[in-house]
Amino acid sequence: MTAPAYRRLSVEERRGQLIDTALALFAHRPPEEVSLDEVAAAAGVSRPLVYRYFPGGKPQLYEEALGSAADELRECFAEPQSGPLTHRLSRALDRYLAFVDGHDAGFAALLRGGSAAETARTDAIVDGVRRAAAEQILLHMRVPEPGPRLRMMVRTWLAGVEAASLIWLDEGKQPPLDELRDWLVDHFVALLAATAAHDPQTAGITRAALAAERSDGAVGRLARRVVPVVEDSLHLL
Amino acid sequence: MTAPAYRRLSVEERRGQLIDTALALFAHRPPEEVSLDEVAAAAGVSRPLVYRYFPGGKPQLYEEALGSAADELRECFAEPQSGPLTHRLSRALDRYLAFVDGHDAGFAALLRGGSAAETARTDAIVDGVRRAAAEQILLHMRVPEPGPRLRMMVRTWLAGVEAASLIWLDEGKQPPLDELRDWLVDHFVALLAATAAHDPQTAGITRAALAAERSDGAVGRLARRVVPVVEDSLHLL
Known about the structure:
Tetracycline Repressor, domain 2, transcription (chains A, B), 71% helix, DNA-binding transcription factor activity (chains A, B), mainly alpha, Homeodomain-like_sf (chains A, B), transcription regulation (chains A, B), homodimer, Arc Repressor Mutant, subunit A, TetR family transcriptional regulator (chains A, B)
């Protein structure tokens, strides 16, 4: 049972092991339900040893586990700058949604708020991830100086992705992840087009992004599906 | 100074006056910064009198002020079931955004979370408003049994409206409210179309909604602005 306690780990290895263990526990249950004793037991070490590494106890351990999860989340949006924009977005969303799937209860507890473990510092970590994701997406649009409309569009879409992820968890992880991903990509395309109607900078980016799309890609698929829905409404043009 | 204290108010009137006074103070500053003494002074009554009405002190007063604001917000989405859907949505958003404008700091503090005044009960109040808004919108779509995709679409859009409202407050209330409102209506139309591409129920509702639109309305305006942006991309169809 306690064998792992006797493995010789360096200070950094032990710290990392405790954070990983805590994250695995915090991922599937609200922070209130995870005790420090449980983290110690799962890591095969004593409670005093956990305190030696994390003198702040559970709040500190939670915050560090969250910081480690935030690093992982930030990585989701790192993507090579090549290929159609919707392909890149689709791959980023695949990673993001896999993260949501793998940290379901912890993700929901954190974003729903109202948790006793929530502090100004944990809020700042979450906001940091949001900002990093928005920056990544704007980078992919190759805009050196994104205007307020474009920034609002990206952040609004990201808020929608978060909301949809929480609803998806509530609904017993339905629809299947790849359908949710495709819908969120389509949401992005639709919101980009709607914003292009209001903002010349976004219009320019949308034209450039569309020129790089392929007819068997996300935009082509979306367009072919939307046309039959709107084709009786040409009187509006 | 203290003249209002001597007005004879009934118990219900006094309660209402204290809640209105508290709400006016909580509207423009985070709850931490508003003291019970300040509420008493602004209402022209003594501190003990506030406690007589709200034995739970500031937390109770905050919660009741929030409940009163929630009632007001819920009213924003009540709208007669006639005319094009985008007109109704536009009027509801006018009221909602006027509320955000009039309760700026309190609205931001509440939705940003991390506030000491936030509890499971205040969270439940906020969630109640979200649910009521979603129900209202679904009612206007005349769907007796909305499927999961349509519900997810409406709730995702509402999350985007909240996020855009917070960004709007951060950006010094730019762009002007009517531009923000039009953009949010266009966001709704775009998201509805994107969802129609994935879901037959949403496709049916979208067709019916489009048939009721007028060419000088929101959808006509959006379509005429989007066409020039996408017209070079017919290769995708």
